[in-house]
Specification:
- The chain has two domains: 164 residues, Rossmann fold; 146 residues, 3-Layer(aba) Sandwich (Rossmann fold).
- Helix 4 runs parallel beside helix 5 and helix 7 packs across helix 12.
- The protein contains 16 helices and 13 strands.
- It is α/β, with parallel strands linked by helices.
- The longest helix is centred in the first third of the chain and has 19 residues.
- Helices cover 48% and strands 14% of the residues.
- 51% of the residues are buried.
- The structure holds uridine-diphosphate-N-acetylglucosamine and uridine-5'-diphosphate.
- Uridine-diphosphate-N-acetylglucosamine binds next to helix 1, helix 5 and helix 11.
Length: 356
């Protein structure tokens, strides 16, 4: 039986690996979880383990925050020690964070097979740290789990041998399907926030190239205020700690936006599925809104999820206030009967089947 190391470190990796972890547990496989500790605040980390009933990580490297070099380097050094000791047959990483790059690199240098979940996404914007991470992780990988045919074609175009690539769907669909009905049975966060279903906007924004640049973050805030004003509806922003920190540093304020702490997954799914429209720069949220049939406005100039633009669930608005309002107005006119391009919710099963 193959020994599988599941490496993760941030909120989206915990959520998107959860279907794979559940499948490994269900089949009683020989696996363990290695948490890098890139995310460590309770509401970005432990809350998801508790709520999604995931087994505790066998290792937590507690690397915390830092510059890209320091964070990636520390993870690389520390993961290597665990891999030498545990000798897994395969290391699984998910997505495009510094945790993913370090995990893939540490494993491949030790001649351990690497499986990349969510392979083949490209924004073609090398200014994004995530683009560097995903390209390098793909090219270190032995198993490339592409969510869509489009991502498979991208990998083939980069010279990756066809036999390494499998189209599995995206595990976010599994996560949404596995958790949406549970979330509906719970006390609604809408009630607590005094929101009426279909009558509010939901926002997330945390990308380095947006919130670390004052003019761009200011543009986003102004755009959100204009949207709230134009439609006379509340706008809720569960704010990532990075964005909170940068708002304080830049002295940005807004009375028109309701800022709340990041929320747990079941609450977020409820807020998302009942929103009139979602504005975001998150990767996972672009996918989830597409699956949930909620219109999405992406606060970026490009996306590595072009499938959402093609099916019509999403539009790129950039960070200028007038463009954000215009894109919102345009998306509200769209029919939401698009098809979900990210698979049938069985990606986790397929990934595990290939590895065993
Ligand atoms: C990281 C990923 C990004 C992903 C995001 C998911 C990289 C390069 N970036 O961005 O791709 O979309 O996670 O949310 O890997 N902080 C806390 N508590 C935490 C973690 C971070 O307060 O638990 C604060 C710290 O001030 C830290 C800042 O957030 O400096 C940024 O954290 P970092 O892990 O560097 O990147 P994210 O912005 O979270
Ligand atoms: N999410 C959450 N609570 C929040 C905001 C987001 O549970 O307050 C979930 C969301 O449902 C999605 C994931 O976090 O599955 C997206 O993570 P994030 O935006 O941090 O990272 P990205 O997808 O951009 O890498």
């Amino acid at each position: 039986m193959q020994k599988i190391a599941i490496v993760l470190g941030t909120r989206p990796e915990i959520i998107k690996m959860s279907p794979v972890i559940r499948e490994c547990a269900k089949q009683n496989l020989n696996y363990f979880i290695l948490h890098t500790g890139q995310h460590y605040s309770y509401n970005l980390d432990k809350i998801f383990f508790e709520q999604l009933k995931l087994p505790e990580a066998k290792y937590n490297l507690d690397v915390g925050s830092g510059t890209h070099g320091a964070q990636t380097g520390t993870i690389l050094r520390e993961i290597e020690k665990v891999l030498i000791q545990e000798k897994p047959d395969v290391v699984l990483v998910e997505g495009d964070t510094n945790t993913v790059l370090a995990g893939a690199l540490a494993a491949t240098k030790l001649h351990i097979k690497v499986g990349h979940v969510e392979a083949g996404l490209r924004s073609y914007d090398r200014k994004m740290p995530e683009e560097i991470n995903r390209v390098l992780a793909d090219h270190c990988s032995d198993y490339l789990f592409a969510p869509t045919e489009k991502s498979r074609q991208i990998l083939l175009g980069e010279g990756i041998p066809a036999e390494r690539i499998v189209v599995t769907g995206n595990t976010i669909v599994d996560a949404v399907y596995q958790n949406l009905s549970i979330s509906e049975g719970r006390t609604s966060p809408l009630h607590e926030l005094e929101l009426v279903p279909g009558d509010y906007f939901l926002v997330t924004a945390h990308r380095q190239e947006n919130v670390d640049v004052k003019a761009r973050f200011e543009g986003i805030i102004k755009g959100l205020e204009r949207v709230a004003g134009a439609f006379s509806l509340p706008i809720i922003y569960p704010i990532h700690p990075r964005s909170r920190k940068m708002m304080d540093r830049f002295g940005l304020k807004s009375a028109g936006i309701k800022f709340i702490d990041p929320v747990d997954y079941l609450s977020f799914l409820q807020l998302e599925s009942k929103a009139k429209l979602v504005l975001t720069d998150s990767g996972g949220v672009q996918e989830e809104t597409c699956v949930l049939k909620v219109p999405c406005v992406t606060l970026r100039d490009n996306t590595e999820r072009p499938e959402t633009l093609e099916v019509g669930s999403n539009v790129l608005a950039g960070t200028k206030a007038e463009n954000i309002l215009e894109a919102t107005t345009e998306m509200l006119d769209r029919n939401v009967n698009w098809a979900n391009p990210f698979g049938d919710g069985r990606a986790g099963e397929r990934i595990v089947e290939i590895l065993t």
